[in-house]
Specification:
alpha+beta; two-stranded antiparallel sheet; single chain; globular; about 220 residues; 8 strands; SH3 type barrels; about 45% helix
Amino acid sequence: MPVSGEHHPAFEEYCLTIFELAEDDLDVIQARIADRLEVSRPAVSEMIKRLDAEGLVTTAGGIQLTDEGITLAKKVARRHRLAERFLTDILGLTWAQAHHEAGKWEHIMSPEVEDALDRVLGNPTTCPHGNPIPGSSYRAPNQVPLSEVPVGASFTVSRIPEELEFVEGVLDFLETSGILPGQQATLTAASPDGTRTIELDGNHVGVGPFASERILVTV
């Protein structure tokens, strides 16, 4: 059971997923929820009915969180992203490892631990990937996808959306390549297939079209 004693962890997981899909401007449909959570579509359909009955979602005009659902999702997202920050910054875990572990912490973290993490970490505004921590003082910069940066332009990596965290191998690739929030780089080439080549710290790295259309940068 979650620490709050108010909602089952499965409810938290679904509300968080719906919140993250909407946060990344993706259509919230049952098939996408099923893919993200690696469950069957009938299972998603049944859970959406339960969430609707609990007052956490509404299905009128599509799947959307209610105000109560948004509050729950933000609470879980805050715990998850604070945990990721602690696991990477303090314990030295990789992005992929931290993302996996934080998925457990988000359901069991007490408010006291949450407050302590926030204090120890210096009140961070984003997770290691640049996604905003709900309840922080985060202010979104003017961001564009990497795919829209013109060749020759310099930019700063700003945010790796949650969508990319669920694609196998992407977090490891970005971390080992140095494509991190705050990293400055230059776009040196744009291939017809959508691949973008960037130069950072003297190295040239190719970023495929799927990732380059989603990685957010400031120019």
